[in-house]
Amino acid sequence: MKNAIAHLTPEAIEKAFAGTNFGRTDFEVILAETVLERAAGYNPGHRATSIATRLGLLGDKTGNVTKAGHEWAMKIFYSHHKQSKQPYEQPEQEIFTCERCGRKTSHPEGWHYCGA
């Protein structure tokens, strides 16, 4: 697979997208989305499909995803997914005690069912 996609350098991808306007410049992600959409049976659009075909990620005649294209798209997808993952830190919850019944609650406004 490495030989099949060795030509997919960032410079080659940027050159393939020269003169296009997708509204964003993360061309690797656009290509990966195109390949994965074609694998799922959707039509991602003519321009993106043409670029992916020219780069060898989609087949020339059928437009189906090539094995190298699928592996490359999954690699890009997971590498960007790992980069965007930030550990979620839950904010410290303040505990409120009802003056009437003595029950404790963590609701920001102190709401609870007061049986008093």
From TrEMBL:
Q: Report the superkingdom from the record.
A: Bacteria
The protein's name in its UniProt record: Uncharacterized protein
Task: Name the species this protein comes from.
Answer: Komagataeibacter europaeus (Gluconacetobacter europaeus)
